[in-house]
Amino acid sequence: MTAVCDRAALAGSLQRLDAWCQAQDYLGWDVYDGLNSRLLAATPLYRSRLVRLLWIQLFKHLPVNLRPLARVPKADNPKALALFIAGLAAQGRSGEAGRLAARLLAQASPGYGAGAWGYPFPWQA
């Protein structure tokens, strides 16, 4: 009896997660996306390598999400899209999987042949 309840709870959780992902149009933030901040980019501080490194670490480690305040837009993550596509296809949701596949293919990095993608944000180490 417990296993049935756990399965029902799990199914309900997955349905709520699926609805939330759809409502977000499968867009999201990444732990390293701080340099997409429109706020930082509008200042002369953006030119400083040290400031950019500190900014990335601030966004990565701060327990509060500053992205809305710093105007960091949600973006597609190619790997996440691929995983969503695989899950949707396994569920027989080919229409939605196809829509996301077209979105993923449109984001392929030019000049690297077929099937190359990068991060949707500047990378600095």
**Extended strand count:** 0
Mean pLDDT: 92
Low-pLDDT runs of 5+ residues are none
Oligomer: single chain
The largest β sheet comes out as: none
> Helix proportion of residues, in percent?
40-55%
* SS summary, helix count: 5
**What integer value in Å does the Rg equal?**
18 Å
Order of helices and strands: HHHHH
- The helix/strand class is mainly alpha
What is the molecular shape?
globular
Per-chain topology:
Elements: H1 2-23, H2 38-41, H3 49-61, H4 78-90, H5 94-106
Give a verbal description of the structure.
It is a single chain. The chain is mainly alpha-helical and 125 residues long. Helix content is 52%, strand content 0%. It contains five helices and no strands. The longest helix is centred in the N-terminal third of the chain and has 22 residues, at 2-23. The chain is globular. The chain starts with a helix and ends in a 19-residue tail after the last helix. The mean pLDDT is 92.
